[in-house]
Amino acid sequence: MAFDGVTIANVVQEMNQELIGGRLYKIAQPENDELLLTIKTSNGQKRLFISAGASLPLIYLTNTNKPSPMTAPNFCMLLRKHLQNGRIVSITQPGLERIIHIEVEHLDEMGDLCRKTLVVEIMGKHSNIIFCNEEHMIIDSIKHVSAAVSSVREVLPGKPYFVAQTQDKLDALTVEYPAFREALSSKPQPTFKALYGSFEGISPILAQELCFQAGIDGEQPTAALDEAAYQKLFTAFKTMVQSIQAGDFTPNIAYTGTQPVDFAAIPLTMYTTGTDHTVAYDSMSQLLESYYAEKNTITRIRQKSSDLRRIVQTALERNVKKYDLQLRQMKDTEKRETYRIYGELLNTYGYSAQPGDKSLEAINYYTNEPVTIPLDPTLTALENAKKYFDKYNKMKRTYEALSELTKEVKEEIDHLETISAALDIALQEEDLVEIKEELTESGYIRRKGGSKKTKITSKPFHYISSDGFHIYVGKNNYQNEELTFKFATGNDWWFHAKGIPGSHVIVKTEGDGEMPDRTFEEAGRLAAYYSKGRGQEKVEIDYIQKKHVKKPGGAKPGFVVYYTNYSLMIDSNIEGIEQVN
After folding, report:
1. In degrees rounded to 5, what are phi and psi of residue 117?
2. Is the C-alpha dihedral spanning 80, 81, 87, 93 positive or negative?
3. For labeling, which of 31, 125, 231, 422 is most exposed (least CB within 10 Å)?
4. HSE (CB half, 13 Å, CA atoms) of 3?
5. Is 173 in contact with 242 (CB distance < 8 Å)?
6. What's the mean pLDDT in 140-146?
7. If you write DSSP's letter for every residue of 394-462 in order, what string do you get?
8. What is the pLDDT of residues 1-49, one digit of tens each?
9. Using H for helix, E for strand and C for coil, what is the string for 316-385?
10. b/e sequence 214-226, b meaning 16+ C-beta within 10 Å
11. 3-class state of residue 502 by DSSP
């Protein structure tokens, strides 16, 4: 799943088709490392999304807008100053490097025509967006890289821009057979590794595909290849290069079953057996947006929820340690009944004990079994009995106190785990607002003096089953509570993953509670998907009509009890269930 040089070539081709001659109408910076450019072209308005995020760098054309901060960051303001209303004159890629040069023509402060270049580097954690002048000097960049961070290249205003050559790779677009063979044979590695290690722009998945097309086992070492194998591999390689040069791309995602596993700009023919298959897309931008949109959203929301996650995790760890300690202390009180019986038996049979005895043999009249009672030889039998009763009473008090405390701590652990599950399914910032409010109400976050409760705008997930029934899924404990006890009516159906944190799922029946089996299964899948059981092969789901679900007095938000229910075992695959919002 690499954003390789061939994928970049496909994106550059699409950008040239759609953006050349267009004018930069709007420049926005939705996140610290993202740009969203709106371009007016002869064919209408286009948007270009660029991310230099270390975990998920991307660039593609999109129809989707993103909200921007009220105050634009400095880099965004600089681009607006220089490039607003500028005309895109060229979009190029050096070789198969993961770099795109977007050259923009604009009028400077004096009204003279000049050109500047926006350089997009898609290089994992080293990704960047760099703004350069005509002399290739850096005006600014979305990320600054000083000499303290990189000894290879500084990316700072006033420094010259150049591409750091940290890998000795050949240009895949110009290499001929002798150099191709020499590059591979000089590397004593599996063939597919030698391929992507020798040529720029080639990812491991493309290397495996080339080996497959040539009829070679990619894991086979290069030393084991004969001349015919090298010739076949070069033929497959050259065919790919010719397709790239001709702009003949086939964006496709490879699936194993229903799980997407890879994508590429050339056909992945090795995924054509068994449950493996590919799905072709009209454009690479469409593919990337489809493939990465949800992943990018999750990555961003995880970054934004990091503080809340840290609070929850810290509280969880503290409560788990407390709970484990309390359970150990509870275990130490298990002998309390034994001490009570020793005391009673000494009161009954103590007359037979002699001064200085270290034990007393007696019959336990509760079980009619003989028992040996240890004695303190310095004490009388009655004094030993009192000592055992004192131990019993102390342990009894400890047990009673711990029974209540462990119950409270276990409820708190369960509560925190449900909040953790809610953080896992949050997709938008407004979802985090409600979770933060719950943590504040629970005392984990201090409300600032005089501040009011935050306005809640997050809403439950809304789906429609294949049979037309409306299904609602709570995103957090407050929404679960609202759905179950205020929104649902008596004959609506309630679903929840058994014994694990998860969302309340409500199916509206609008009547007598009758539903087709398919809707029961789809609601069960949603309950499995929006729980800690997501991804498991099978998840057990409890379901019951809402009228049988009760809330215990004083229970935490979203906690319920029920005493009769149905159960089903189902997977957490929700593909094909229509989502309304």
Report:
1. -125, 130
2. negative
3. 125
4. 29
5. no
6. 93
7. HHHHHHHHHHHHHHHHHHHHHHHHHHHHHHHH--SHHHHHHHHHHHHHTTSSPPPTTPPPPPP----EE
8. 568 899 999 999 999 999 999 999 999 999 899 999 999 999 899 999 9
9. HHHHHHHHHHHHHHHHHCCCHHHHHHHHHHHHHHHHHCCCCCCEEEEEECCCCEEEEEECCCCCCHHHHH
10. bebebeeebeebe
11. strand
Supply 136's token pair.
Answer: 């290739």
CA distance 341 to 324: 29
SS3 state of residue 14: helix
Within 8 A by CB and 6+ apart from 350, the residues are 360, 380, 381, 382, 384, 385
**Alpha helical stretches, state H, 426-559:** 429-441, 477-482, 517-529
Cα 461 from Cα 298, distance rounded (Å): 16
Contacts of 67 (CB under 8 A, 6+ apart): 30
* Distance (Å, whole) CA 333 – CA 485: 41
Q: Report how far residue 197's alpha carbon sits from residue 246's, in angstroms, rounded to the nearest whole number.
A: 24
Q: Are 548 and 564 in contact (CB under 8 A)?
A: yes
Q: Summarize the confidence of residues 376-388 as an average pLDDT.
A: 92
Average pLDDT (113-117) is 92
- Which backbone phi and psi does 559 adopt, to 5 degrees? -90, 135
What per-residue confidence (pLDDT) applies to 450? 58
Question: CB of 99 within 8 A of CB of 120?
Answer: yes
pLDDT tens-place string over residues 177-228: 999 999 999 988 999 999 999 998 899 999 999 999 999 999 999 989 999 9
Asked if 289 and 64 touch (Cβ cutoff 8 Å), the reply is: yes
Helices (H) and strands (E) in the chain, counts: 13, 21
DSSP class of residue 110?
A: T
Residue 5: partners with Cβ closer than 8 Å, 6 or more residues away: 93, 95, 96, 97, 98, 172, 200, 201, 202
